[in-house]
Amino acid sequence: MTYNDLPSRVIPGGAHTYSKGDDQFPEVAPRFLERGQGVRVWDDRGTEYLDWMMGLRTMTLGYGQEEVIAAAVDQIHKGSNFGRPSRIEAETANDLIELIPSAEMVKFAKNGSTVTTAAIKLARAYTGRDLVALCADHPDSASREGPARSLSARLLAGDQFPFLQEIKLPTNGAIRVWKVARGR
Predict the structure, then answer these.
(1) Quick one: residue 21, left, alpha or beta (phi over 0 = left, psi -120 to 50 = alpha)?
(2) Global pTM exceeds 0.70
(3) Would you say residue 24 lies in a domain?
(4) pLDDT of 62-114, one tens digit each?
(5) Residue 23: which CATH number?
(6) What is the DSSP string of 59-84?
(7) Which of 122, 130, 124, 152 is nearest to 139 (CA)?
(8) Of 99, 141, 163, 175, which sits with the fewest C-beta atoms within 10 Å of its C-beta?
(9) Are 149 and 106 in contact (CB under 8 A)?
């Protein structure tokens, strides 16, 4: 086994984030990225690349921005992830509300799965409805192996969940719908 094989041996799919996985890149892609500056990244052999992914689309300012690093380090020294909200959370939420005319409130979350789940729960609570529709050819519907697949990929692949029941609707197959059991 080579060092390049290590991630695939110890991490399902070779990465902790599906979009970084082995099956998302051609074989000639760098195995490891070690550092970034601006819009450029370097692999573990020192080869420089233009990072068209920009940190999974989160690095809108680029890597290694001194002002961002200084602000992050300052906050780290103050502590993080307290048992109660910090002032900076409320101030940032307020700044977003002022920037986005249609925003009334802000909820920060860890990832897209968390906010999608929250949006479905909120929509179901508000409307009282218990159906969830998924595009049958959603990017998540691509075949994936193992438990790391998302709920939507697992549903579209035919996995069964006791709280969900697929409803057959007269559609062209582009949309599939599941009924969520009450109390969930």
Answers:
(1) beta
(2) no
(3) yes
(4) 899 999 999 999 999 999 889 998 999 999 999 999 999 999 999 888 777 77
(5) 3.90.1150.10
(6) -TT-B--HHHHHHHHHHHHH--S-SS
(7) 152
(8) 99
(9) no
